[in-house]
Structures are given as structure tokens and as C-alpha cells.
Amino acid sequence: MTDDLPNPALLPAGLADLLPPEAEREAALVEAMMAVFAAHGYERVKPPLLEFEDSLLAGSGAAVAEQTFRLMDPVSQRMMGLRADTTPQVARIAATRLAQDQRPLRLCYAGQVLRVRGTQLAPSRQLPQAGVELIGGAAPAADAEVALVAVEALAAVGVADVSLDVTLPTLVPALMEAAGVAPPLRQALARALDRKDSADVTSIAQREGGVLAALPALMAATGPADGALAALEAAELPPTARAIAENAASVLAAIRGLAPALRITLDPVEFRGFRYHTGVAFTLYGPGMSGELARGGRYLSQNDEPATGMSLYPDAVLRAAPVAAPRPRLFVPLGADGARFRAQGFATVAALAPEDTPLRLRCTHELKDGAAVPIAAKD
Amino acid sequence: MTDDLPNPALLPAGLADLLPPEAEREAALVEAMMAVFAAHGYERVKPPLLEFEDSLLAGSGAAVAEQTFRLMDPVSQRMMGLRADTTPQVARIAATRLAQDQRPLRLCYAGQVLRVRGTQLAPSRQLPQAGVELIGGAAPAADAEVALVAVEALAAVGVADVSLDVTLPTLVPALMEAAGVAPPLRQALARALDRKDSADVTSIAQREGGVLAALPALMAATGPADGALAALEAAELPPTARAIAENAASVLAAIRGLAPALRITLDPVEFRGFRYHTGVAFTLYGPGMSGELARGGRYLSQNDEPATGMSLYPDAVLRAAPVAAPRPRLFVPLGADGARFRAQGFATVAALAPEDTPLRLRCTHELKDGAAVPIAAKD
């Protein structure tokens, strides 16, 4: 290799190889989570990685339009997009090929999505996703189900002790709408809420009064769900905001009923980052500093069907999940047969030439008198 | 929806949704085959779907260059390709990130590949692939291993009774080279061999004589491996072709030693369709008319490392594999808990609202006195 050739190890920024043993761990995690989805009646669909831009970016797909790679289809001469999110594709399937199926539809998916640019916090441009969508059901119990199925999927791969963060992305817009807030103030208020600047929020709320007066107390109540719900209950809210608060209370009661021990926080005034959600929105955090493991919530699917769903991030789950003991590797000498040991959970690694030694083949075990015995570390 | 909008169900030609239950079946097949690979010591890697064109199309990647979608990376301003084959990416990983690992390396992968155009026989432009690569081993036993691991993977998903078709894509070129055949005749001979036109091949062989005289007998011997090997053994071959024949005999002996009952055919004069293979090449056919399930064989990996591998086609395997009984679906009334039944293998489908009936939720079973009982078909 000469210096003027590009280094073949160099991949585009944000695109990476997953190597052993992580690639196998990630695949195993995904299938274990999908098994939980299937056990709750979610049926798997597999939309293609590429489809026409106009169907890919319809509905909730608009939220990722600027993050979507486009390319020309030489067959149809039309623009195609490489999916940046799977939810819009599942919405398309529900509205077209499964239009005649009874509701609610429970669908699940696992696959890769690609993004034009990474962010500083999330530099990856290829991300695995595994998720559930419940389409055609408006009940608070549906939101509770998708949140808890995600929690159970995480528990199935060893990530217990998660916390569920609930936000109501339509509440603040409903308050501003009811208060008739003009655009410049709307932006100032949005910024203050986004920065969690309580002094600024309080000063705006006191100056404007009316329905905005509720904001400082709601902001202060952010935290454990019970306290935040009590603050919502006590606040003076216009009818649209009251309906949102009551729906949140119903969803949280349904979750509590099924998972009394789950740690739940509620941030009533957070509204950024959920661009197409129309009701409660969820984020699942792993224990410690392991970060966001899943996101979801209520939205409108195609043809304005009520829908709710959760998308899990297997790359983040991989970092949060415990590492299983590596598979033991049994050296099988030239001409010997390892079938019996594969049935016991060994990877059998066959010598194919005289130079293939247990050390070269990174084996942990070798055959002695027909038994698999560990190889001493010093050899 | 108005008539002047494109039909959102319309996907680009060759791109399709996999729906329930096929999407789950395909995923289960892939993971079952990957488990066989892992049990033989093949470690999973997951290269990205996109990488720089120049590394993606290096080596064996050149064979799929014209089938590779390209797009501009806005970050690096360099061209990227959407992979049309996974083998070149595994070769890159072996030559770069795993360059220091002892040989042979056993790696496996599963994922999607995309093609610019489908063919009449294979219209799909997105294809799943799952395969093994054994890099850095030149022994005939390595070729035998990859072929038999693929056979075992197919058996693991219920596709038994496969047949292994062996070809020697370098044999005819070696004979033509040794005979000093001029380009026009080379093309005529290639065409005649490709059409299996024995009259034409015989007439050329008789006219030219020399090393080409062996061709009619080799062509006639195509069929069960033993007969074809005997014809190769009996033929008068120049040294390069003799070495190819002897290697084939060694590989087939190694396969026979491990799988005496496997049906093997050998076509010594077939040489099309394997564009980067340097030794024996394999095609696995399913029983009946189920077609090609896998392809592979010996090639040179990056830095001219000897390598061999097999790529299985999960979409074809899905058509050939037996269909398992569908998962029973148990209706769980509002407020009841299905956990016990999920542990027994049921999909539990929860009612979320009063209108959710067993019929609407397509359930096969309902709870009666705490037991899951089948729902009578007429209801």
C-alpha cells in the first residue's frame, strides 16, 4: 500500500464497524427484545431501507426530512430516501397493506436507520432501532402498554432499574395558544423553558398573568411523577391543557397499576425534542449514566389514526447491558469431530492445517481423552 | 387522499415490505443460521451499510461496482457506496482492524445489501445476506468447512436434502491460456461452453486439438462428483489445470469425509457467474425447485490473503424452509395479567378498551377459569 492511497480503514465520520464480540451481543440483544414484543402480540414487519422520498417523508417522516439521504432511482427516475426513522414506514404499511386489518394493530420492527449528519452528542450516522407501534387505539392503556413493553424488553437483556421520563409536549403550546401569546414572546418563553430558567419563566408569567401564571409552579414540580401530577391537578388550566393533564394522569395511573415499582418522572413543561408527538411522550433512561435507551409516545399515524409507540436504541442498550461470559472455544484437532461439544454450547474451532494450534485459534479449551478441558492460561 | 398524489403503497421496483408472519420467520431463520456459524467459531462483525466508494469497491467489491448505489457524503465531500455485497467489507475489516489477529480468521455477518438494478430472474434490489468468511487459510479443509457449515445452517432451519454444486471457474481459463487460444476463439468457446453446446465444443476441441481436446469429455462428465472427478483424473491436462483438478479432488475428499451422504455435483467446465473466485466455487440448491440458497468458494482477500466463504440468501431460504405453526394468541381481558402465559409461549394480546374483542384482536385462545382455551372457529 502506498501513501497516496486513502487508508482503507478510514470509514466516513459516524459510520463504524462493530467487531467481535459486540456485533454478536448487539444482535442477541435485538432478538431478545423482539421476542418480548412478539410475546405481547406485536407482529414483525420489515420495510425496505430505501423507498420513494414522498412516502418516506410523509407524516411523522417530515421530522427527519433534513436528516434523510436521497438518491435517484435509475429505474423510475424518481428520488428515493434512505430511511432515517422506521416509524413513518410502519405508518405507511398500516395505512396501505394492512388497511383492512382490525384495529388496534400491534406491529414491531428492527433494523438500521441512516442520518445525513451526526450531532456532537450522538455522532453516529447509522443507528440500529427496534421498536413497537400500536396503531388505531386511543386509550391511555395503549400508551401504558408500549412504555411497559419497552421496560420489559430492557429487563429481558439485563437492563433493570430504568427510569421512565414522561413529558407532555403539547401542554406548553396549548397554554401559549390559550393565552394568545404573540410570536416574539412565544420564542422568549420557549427559550426560557428550554434552559429551565425559572427566574425568567417566573418573570414572564407574572408580567403576562392569565393562563401563563401556572407555569412557574408546573416547572418547579418537575420530578417524581406523583408530585408533578399533583401540581398539574392544582394548577388553573384552560380546557385544552386540562384535557392534556387528565390524559397524562390516566396514562400514569395505567402504568402504576401494572408496574407499581417503576421509577417515573414527569416534566410537564418540557416540549422540545418530540417533534410529532400529540400526547404523552416517553424517554427511558438506563441506570447510572447510561443515558437514553428508548423514546416514544403518542402521535397521529397516517390518515390521522391515533397511535403510540416506543423505539429502543440497541447501540445504547449494548452499552448499558451486562456483558455475558464469552462463549468457550474448543480446539478440534485435524480430523476430529466437535458436534457433541457444539450441542453443549462450545464454539468448536477446527484445525485445518498442521500450523493451526489452540493458541493461534484463540481456544479456551482442548480435547483430552474425549473431554473438553480448559487450557492453562500460561502456555 | 386525492388522485393526483402518488399511491403511498407504491414502492420502488424490487423493494418490498416483508409483512407478518414472514418478517419474523426470516429474522428467526437468520439468527438460527448465525448460531450455527458461531458454534463453529465464526465471530460476528457488522460493517456499516455505507462506506467510502474506494474501499467498498476494492478487491472482490469490483465485481459489484456497477450494481452499487453511490451518494455524496456531505461531511467529507467524498463519494460513498451503499453496499451491494458484504464480503468486500469483511475483507477490509480482516486487513485493517483485525490485521494483527492470528490466522485463519473466522468471521460471519448478517445484513442487507442493495443493488441498483434487479434482474428478470432476481428482481429484488434489497437482499438479505448471512455468511461466513474464513480468511488466511489455504487448506482444502477450509473450503470443505465453509461448504458444510452452510449445509448445517440450512439443516438447522429445516432445509435438508440440499445439493452442493461445485464448479472450477479457473479451469477453462487455465486450459485456454495453456492452449494459447486467441481472443476471438476464446469468446466462441466461452459461448459454446456457456450454452452447454456439446456439438460446438467438440468441433472446436477437435479442430484445435492440444490441451483443448480434454474439453468434450470434461463437459460430458458434468454431474455426480465421483464421475466428474474420474473424468478430470483421466484427462490430459497442462500443469496449471492439473493443479486445479487436484485441489478440487482434495476439497471433495474433505467434504466426503465429513458428510458422506451429501449430494454433490461437479461441473468442471462451468466458469461464468463466479467473478472473483480463484479455486473451487460452490452453489447450494434446495430440494425440488427451491433454487439457489447459497453461493461461495475460494477467493483472494485483501493483501492477497487466501480466503474462502459462503453467503446464504435468507429470502430464498425463507421460501424453501418449512412453515412453523403460528404462535397462539391469547386474549387478555381489560385488567388481567398474561405474564404466566407468555412464559408458556403464548403471545398475549391485551384488551385496551371495551371494543377490543378476541375476534378483533385475532386471538386463537381466551382465558377461562384461569386457563387458556382455544376459541371455537365459528364465532
Structure write-up:
Chains A, B: InterPro entries: aa-tRNA-synth_II/BPL/LPL, HisRS-like_core, HisRS/HisZ, HisZ. The structure is a homodimer of 379-residue chains. Chain A has 379 residues and is α+β, with helices and mostly antiparallel strands. The first copy, chain A, is 34% helix and 23% strand. In chain A, helix 1 runs antiparallel to helix 4 (140-156), helix 5 (171-179) runs antiparallel to helix 10 (239-258) and helix 9 packs antiparallel against helix 10. In chain A, a hairpin with a 2-residue loop joins strand 15 and strand 16 (371-374). Chain A has a domain at 329-374. At the A-B interface, helix 1, strand 1, strand 2, strand 3 and helix 3 of A face helix 1, strand 1, strand 2, strand 3 and helix 3 of B.
Task: Looking at this protein, list some descriptive labels.
homodimer; elongated; 16 strands; alpha+beta; 4-stranded mixed sheet; 379 residues; 12 helices
Secondary structure tally: strands of chain A: 16
**Beginning-to-end CA distance, first to last residue of chain A:** 35 Å
| Quaternary organisation of the protein chains | homodimer
Helix count from the secondary structure assignment of chain A: 12
Protein name (chains A, B): ATP phosphoribosyltransferase regulatory subunit
Function (chains A, B): Required for the first step of histidine biosynthesis. May allow the feedback regulation of ATP phosphoribosyltransferase activity by histidine.
Family (chains A, B): Belongs to the class-II aminoacyl-tRNA synthetase family. HisZ subfamily.
GO molecular function, one term (chains A, B): glycosyltransferase activity
